[in-house]
Design goal:
Chains: A mainly beta (86), B alpha/beta (246), C mainly beta (203)
Structural class of chain C: mainly beta
CATH superfamily of chain C: Oxidoreductase, molybdopterin-binding domain
Radius of gyration of chain B: 18 Å
Structural class of chain B: alpha/beta
CATH class of chain C: Alpha Beta
Distance between the termini of chain B: 24 Å
Strand order of the largest sheet of chain B: 4-3-6-1-2-5
Oligomer: heterotrimer
CATH topology of chain C: Sulfite Oxidase, Chain A, domain 2
Largest interface: A-B, 26 and 28 residues
Shape of chain B: globular
CATH class of the largest domain in chain B: Alpha Beta
Shape of chain C: globular
Order of helices and strands of chain C: EEEHEEHEEEEEE
Largest sheet of chain C: 6 strands, mixed
Helix content of chain B: 10-25%
Chain lengths: 86, 246, 203
């Protein structure tokens, strides 16, 4: 489990995509229904991409790959994403 | 707030902190300020285009903007930290983006009591909080529990002594896990539930808790504090991964 | 993006190499063995472990750990190439060839989807995992494969980028129609040949 980081570690990557501090955004897991602030999720980040997982059930909520000038996001396991402005 | 982009800063000072750590102060034109606890992503680019990226916590308080200081621990066989701690010179440019990570932040107006738990280089963002606390003249009741391998590995050692003497309502408890000097009266073991029971604020005081360091350290500390009865929602963690370099 | 910027004197950990003929384009020689994980390391007890071949087969087949260990084994020495640009030469493994496993099922399927504990999947054409091109390995460098590197057993398909060598593999699902796996669904090349630099979609 040593590779696990907090969702906070994905802050830079997320804020390059979304114009908000996404560590404070809330995700509702489509698997177990838990709502967590992204800063408190589990993040696995390495050269291939970033995977943000539900801290309750480990479901992969957000997958991000950044390559060749593109971002690919799979957010099918996020039932709801709530972002606060400002 | 807009989409984050890379910016280039200039190294204006470097300063060894311990044998393996060095602080790097950057001048960042257009720096919009930060909050204590936030970090930056640093990106190195070789002449052939090869790139490596790592995150580093900001060590300096917001009051020092537009100067920003990072404290970097050299990881043996690392990709980025050996360059930052051994090759980077005053006058060099460094590319970074930030500040980011508003989740792991403490500001004086958030109050306390405050419990900071640091493992090794995990002290860096917590030091930014302590420096901010001092600069803001805050008297929020604060306890730092700081785990290091030996006294020589304690980063900011003299500054912590100074902060203790010059501010009120601040306590620093150290534990040295591999070696301690003769006559050492602090703890001399890895943190565990008993140690945290003795050091942490009573549960009824509902402290705000920030834990930072290598992933196994953070998980042990967080689990122990929850076991002692502290509310999970008041514990914020910043895992640094297996080696301490995010 | 800061155009043209580079960090004075930065080379990274990359080794200069005289073995350039063995290193695919864009890759660098790595002496260590980096761990890249997309999720928590599973810890399936061997008593609960099995390996299955399911899907478009006449009869699914399953091996327990003991049955798997009793199969004919090979030692394999191969170069491996990660899409994150590191290559490691002469890696030593032991395990069971996929030919040995697949010969025990009847199928007319064209593709395999390898599936692992934790939900990871990756897809490969069936003819690229047969004919001595792929193994289920449980030993690395003479030692039991460590959990962080995919133990107790992982798929090894060294002629493709290493994300296809699924860690913590539990089986193969044989299918008629290709299905992109975990990374293939997210921008990574469906095929992944390091010699053609098939890293991402559109390469």
């Amino acid at each position: 489990m040593e590779q696990k980081l907090d969702g906070n570690a994905a802050a830079g990557m997320l804020q390059a995509i979304f114009p908000f501090d996404m560590t404070l955004a809330q995700v509702t897991c489509a698997g177990c229904g838990t709502t967590t602030v992204i800063g408190a999720t589990a993040a696995y980040m390495h050269g291939m991409g970033a995977i943000i997982r539900c801290p309750r059930c480990d479901n992969a909520l957000i997958h991000i790959v950044h390559a060749r000038g593109r971002y690919w996001l799979d957010m099918r396991s996020v039932r709801v994403l709530e972002i606060k402005e400002g | 707030m807009g989409r984050l982009s890379w910016q280039i800063g200039e190294v204006v000072a470097t300063r060894p902190e311990t044998v393996r750590t060095k602080s790097i102060t950057l001048d960042l034109p257009g720096w919009m300020g930060h909050r204590a606890g936030q970090h930056v992503d640093v990106r190195l680019t070789a002449q052939d285009g090869y790139q490596a990226e790592r995150s580093y916590s900001i060590a300096s308080p917001p009051e020092e903007a537009p100067r920003v200081t990072l404290t970097v621990e050299r990881i043996d066989d690392g990709e980025v930290s050996p360059y930052l701690t051994e090759d980077l010179l005053v006058g060099d440019k460094l590319e970074l983006r930030g500040p980011v990570g508003g989740y792991f932040v403490w500001e004086a107006q958030m109050g306390g009591p405050l419990l900071l738990v640091a493992g090794g280089s995990g002290i860096v963002p917590l030091m930014a909080m302590l420096r901010h606390r001092a600069a803001a003249g805050s008297t929020v009741a604060t306890r730092l529990l700081y785990s290091s391998r030996s006294l020589e590995d304690v980063i900011y050692r003299h500054e912590l002594d100074h902060l203790l003497k010059s501010s009120t309502m601040l306590e620093v408890v150290q534990t040295l896990t591999r070696a301690h000097p003769p006559g050492w009266t602090g703890y001399a073991r890895r943190i565990d539930t008993q140690l945290l029971r003795e050091v942490a604020w009573p549960v009824e005081q509902r402290p705000q808790i920030f834990i930072c360091g290598p992933t196994p350290f953070v998980e042990t500390a967080a689990a122990s504090l929850v076991e002692l009865g502290h509310e999970p929602g008041r514990i914020k963690t910043e895992r640094f991964g297996p080696t301490g370099e995010t | 993006m800061s155009e043209g910027f580079f960090s004075r004197g930065f080379r990274g950990r990359r080794q200069k190499s005289e073995l350039s003929g063995r290193i695919p384009p864009g890759q660098y020689l790595e002496r260590g063995f980096p761990v890249l994980s997309a999720g928590p390391t599973p810890h399936t007890p061997l008593a609960n472990w099995d390996f299955s071949i399911v899907g478009e087969v006449e009869q699914p087949k399953r091996w327990s750990w003991d049955e798997f260990r009793a199969l004919p084994r090979e030692t394999i020495t191969k170069d491996i190439h990660c899409v994150t640009k590191w290559s490691k030469l002469d890696t030593h493994w032991e395990g069971v060839s996929l030919d040995t496993l697949l010969v025990q099922v009847e199928t007319s399927a064209s593709y395999v989807i390898a599936f692992s504990d934790g939900g990871y999947t990756t897809n490969v054409p069936l003819d690229e995992v047969t004919g001595g091109k792929a193994w289920i390995v449980d030993t690395y460098d003479g030692q039991p494969l460590e959990p962080q590197h995919g133990g107790p057993a992982r798929l090894l398909v060294p002629h493709l980028y290493f994300w296809k060598s699924a860690k913590w593999v539990r089986g193969l699902r044989l299918v008629d129609e290709d299905e992109p796996g975990f990374w293939e669904s997210l921008g990574y090349n469906n095929h992944g040949d390091p010699w053609k630099e098939e890293r991402y979609w559109g390469d």
